[in-house]
Amino acid sequence: MSAFERNRSFTQLIEFEIEPRQQQALVSALVEQTERLAQGCGGFLNASVQASDDGRRVLNYLQWQSREAGEAAFRRFESGEQDFWQLILTHRAKTVSFGSFQVHSSIARSHDDALHCHLPD
Known about the structure:
four-stranded antiparallel sheet; two-stranded antiparallel ribbon; alpha+beta; Alpha-Beta Plaits; 4 helices; globular; 34% helix; 6 strands
């Protein structure tokens, strides 16, 4: 892996397909879990929990400074330290899809309303 690839941030996307009556409870549980990750895992950059309008899907977006940081956090999920598998069972997820992505560029609006593009070093 080149230095350029190592310096790219790393994104994990976890999509849950659920019954609409489970959506709000799952969103709340993921928000709580994401807050614990932000406090307890090194390399955390940002995250969001998103709910579909039809009530059938929830997307958890997690961004890390590196692939290693993201994978270490996921190992905490697998070991039960963050109760991830219990979360899936409790909220009766029909399917759970995982995706991992290297960030090649990002664009964001700053507090002064300017757009900033970031390309990894």
